[in-house]
Write a structure and sequence with these properties.
With 243 residues, the chain is mainly α. The chain has helices at residues 21-47, 52-71, 75-94, 100-123, 132-140, 165-168, 179-195, 203-226, and strands at residues 125-126, 160-161. The chain folds into 2 domains: 21-161, Four Helix Bundle (Hemerythrin (Met), subunit A) (Up-down Bundle); 170-242, no CATH class. It is globular, with a radius of gyration of 20 Å. The protein starts with 20 loop residues before the first helix and ends in a 17-residue tail after the last helix.
Length: 243
């Protein structure tokens, strides 16, 4: 951000009871594209095992998706996504497109994850135990011990309602905001957060993180306006190379 409008904002603390629904909405389209591409790559491998390198492409992108789910504390989606990654890796390592059972279970898991994301967005609640059957079905291919509902016990219960959803989410299309700009700002900062390994951040990367934080704060501010609350005075200003 330029010096005249630079904002130092603290990133919101994310947990299953303080869920950042705007973040999931901003990334929703990209998540759907990622899952669709994975489904296509799996189908192409099923038809021709020489297409195995496509599985590696999906594995790389899905690992990043797992980091996103971890960041926003969507623990059920993270567990299922990780099971999908492990299943794809198993297919690639074996180079065997005759493993019909695993391929079918992976296809079901991808579709289930897609539907689960829609469920979370529509109901503003998370039910990670709904994913247990398909997670365990995939994990069984690697002879892993089945997980139980207790796996999610640290998050309160198998059915956790998002606390104060009216304070966290209002559909972006009702807020008269530049969603393309907000999405770009958020993804730029998210890329820095996911890829950073040592905690050292360059000035350019810090600007991207500030832009991501400003995008979240701007949505929260305008949501507060919608509900008749007094918001902080915020604006979103991006570095020159974003414009």
């Amino acid at each position: 951000m330029n010096q005249s409008a630079q904002m130092k904002l603290t990133a919101p603390t994310l947990s299953v009871t303080d869920f950042n629904l705007p973040s999931l909405h901003l990334l929703h389209d990209e998540i759907i594209v990622t899952l669709k591409d994975t489904e296509i790559h799996l189908s192409e491998f099923n038809d021709d095992n020489s297409q195995a390198p496509l599985l590696l492409d999906s594995i790389t992108v899905l690992k990043q998706l797992s980091c996103i789910f971890e960041l926003i504390s969507l623990v059920g989606a993270e567990a299922l996504n990780t099971a999908i990654v492990n299943g794809l890796q198993r297919l690639y390592d074996n180079g065997d497109n005759n493993d019909t059972s695993l391929i079918m279970d992976l296809s079901e898991a991808i579709m289930t994850l897609d539907r689960y994301i829609e469920f979370v967005l529509l109901t503003e609640s998370v039910e990670p135990t709904l994913l247990l059957p398909v997670i365990n079905k995939l994990n069984a291919h690697g002879q892993e011990t089945p997980i139980t509902a207790d796996y999610f016990a640290a998050f309160g219960s198998s059915s956790v309602i998002i606390a104060n959803p009216e304070q966290n989410f209002q559909p972006l299309d009702e807020l008269n905001l530049d969603t393309e700009l907000l999405t770009y700002a958020y993804r730029s900062g998210l890329g820095v957060a996911l890829l950073n390994q040592d905690g050292n951040v360059s000035p350019d990367d810090q600007q991207k993180l500030d832009a991501m934080s400003a995008a979240c704060a701007l949505i929260a501010s305008n949501t507060a306006v919608y509900f008749g609350k007094r918001p902080p005075q915020l604006s979103l200003t991006l570095p020159r190379y974003y414009r």
